[in-house]
Design goal:
Elements (H helix, E strand, L loop, with lengths): L1 H15 L4 E4 L4 H14 L3 E7 L7 H12 L2 E6 L6 H4 L5 H15 L1 H4 L3 E3 L13 H7 L5 H4 L4 H10 L25 H16 L6 E5 L3 E5 L5 H4 L2 H14 L3 E4 L15 H6 L18
Parallel strand pairs: 1-2, 1-4, 2-3, 6-7
Antiparallel strand pairs: 5-6
Helix pairs in contact: 1-2, 2-9, 5-7, 10-12
């Protein structure tokens, strides 16, 4: 706990040295903790910006609105345009790069209206061990990652969120719907809606942490926590889920016997590409002296 307290104070001190800043705010636990810290450190000089597109799961925008209000930070909502980018729609392993580039570009264009000079994101220290092509977009747009530079792990971010009584401290990760579609399978709004509705149905059945992965041939690969596999396989529930997914347009409905695991589609990314995007988090400067207008 002493280490967490020290990191918290370092985070607040780091943010106090920054000029007015905009937080890329999805409403997830990482960006929520950063927004709370920015509100405490910068006050009215901080703003949270949420990007909205067809890849945002249902209900997430309203949750982000409520959370920003509770934190007490100015909140701006923008419509991103990644679906107008053919490279994004191809859904290659660099998909997140194109999405993040669009978000950061739009945030930069809003700098005069937002009256800020710096853009921040909620990347944490654990993200360096995962395949994160969005990191390149952050570097290109000079986006700062204070949580990562201050050494916050995902577990520590959640603990700080609990200490600050943020209601999403234990909320399961909710990445964009596009992350459910296997690389190389073209993105479209209809497929994202299928996934969103299928996952919503599964959550209603008591599976709060679930993924519906979309594979070529209209195949749904369902991931639920290993400890819930036996309950899922009970005949009535299994049949109801299969029937609902087929109503949505899936031709085949499969259950992954390895259970839920975040980022499971990254096994499809060549190893050399994954290694290329695992950059050290210290590549972001986070001092007022180093931070120039984005």
């Amino acid at each position: 706990m002493n280490d967490l307290n020290a990191k918290r104070e370092r985070l607040l001190d780091t943010l106090r040295e920054l000029p007015p800043s905009a937080v890329a705010f999805s409403g997830g636990v990482d960006s929520a903790v950063l927004a709370k810290a920015a509100a405490l450190a910068l006050g009215e000089r901080a703003v949270a910006v949420t990007g909205v597109s067809p890849s945002l799961p249902a209900g997430e925008l309203e949750l982000a609105r409520q959370l920003a209000q509770q934190i007490g930070i100015r909140h701006v909502i923008i419509e991103t345009s990644e679906f107008e980018n053919p490279e994004y729609l191809k859904n290659g392993p660099d998909r997140c790069y194109h999405c993040r580039s669009d978000l950061y570009r739009q945030m930069q264009e809003l700098i005069p209206r937002l009256q800020v000079q710096v853009i921040l994101n909620g990347a944490n220290a654990d993200d360096r061990d995962d395949y994160r092509p969005g990191t390149q977009a952050a570097e290109e747009h000079r986006v700062l990652s204070p949580l990562a530079v201050c050494g916050f792990t995902k577990a520590e971010v959640r603990q700080l969120a609990a200490d600050w009584e943020l209601p999403i401290w234990d909320k399961p990760a909710m990445p964009c719907l596009a992350s459910r579609i296997a690389y190389g399978v073209e993105l479209n709004v209809e497929r994202l809606q299928q996934i969103d509705r299928a996952e919503g149905f599964l959550r209603q059945q008591g599976f709060p942490e679930v993924r519906v992965r979309y594979h070529a041939g209209d195949v749904a690969r369902l991931e639920v926590p290993l400890e819930q596999l036996s309950r899922f396989c009970a005949s009535d529930l299994r049949e109801a889920v299969a029937a609902y997914c087929k109503e949505l347009g899936f031709r085949f409905v499969t259950l992954d016997l390895e259970g839920f695991r975040s980022g499971s589609l990254n096994v499809l990314v060549p190893l050399e590409m994954r290694n290329a995007h695992q950059r050290p988090v210290t590549s972001n400067a986070t001092t007022a002296q180093d931070a120039s207008p984005a």
